[in-house]
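Hey L., structure's done. Input below.
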Amino acid sequence: MRTLVVGLGRAGAGLHIPVLSRARAAGTQLFGDEPVVACDPRRLPARRAGLVTTQTLAQAAALVDPGDTVAHVCTPPSVRTEVITELARLGFNRIVVEKPLAADTDDLARIIRLRRKHALHIEVVEPWLASTLTARLTDLVRNGTMGEVRSIAIVQNKPRFRRSLTAPGHPTAFDVELPHGVGLALRLAGNARVTHAAGYDLRVGDAVVARMGGAHIGLRHNAGARTEITSDLTAPVRERRITIRFDEGTATGHYAVSDDDDHSQLTVVRGGHAERVVLRDDSLTEWMIQAYRNFRLGGERGALSFGFATEVVQILSVGKNISAEPVVPAARTEATPQHAG
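Output:
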């Protein structure tokens, strides 16, 4: 299959194109030998081997066969629906979409209608679900050797000042890191409902970016476990950590914090004994190979992954709505000044 990348920002030029090169080098026979075609009306990268750039989707469609091409939608969430609409009109029906699938439930409903009308096979980028670390954690949850899962805590922190201040493409902090965390929690502990959520602004000097400073969401899973997911986009350090508390121990995992490294770490504490392992974990490349394999196989695989992605959007939308509700202040006293929450 050939590849079209739509959007040459951080996701398209910085992640998808390099990962596609690694996936092709894996020799899976899933990827064509022809150059990758990329489209972005605002920016064209420096010329490089194996890449052909255009400024419109119509120009890109003239260079490939839409029926045998995977289109990667790497645009901000706010414009994804119109991009998917144009791709479907041009005949593309295999589509990779950056997370989250949609910015809200209204956009989600539009994408669901597009998928049905044009028989689209949509795969939403979820590298954590293809991670070696996630596979290890899933084994611990399912084999029962440490008892039942009681709680999950996921921390997703990174400083994101420049992108939030200069290139606002995400509506809220819920759309940046939390889609990974919510998807991971659902995979490990099953279906859940939102119990609480909060978000806050990014503030640097006199500059304020509404709802982009960070976010927090709490889940209660149908099986009884509770999950807390926090993301601070003003943190001084990067961290992607998960802690699972079982009846008889604790598992703490650290995912790679950037594309600079491809290793994760897992520490399991049980009976007073701690065991730590370092795992080779190029999860985005593995996810990409799996996605192209799903495109080749078709059938139920696409429906299952799409359904899972819609659950993530629905949970995030509930969290956004709760965090946007006005806070009713408690009774004021001279000893307890009120602070914005």
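The two ends are 49 Å apart (CA to CA). The mean pLDDT is 90.

-- N.
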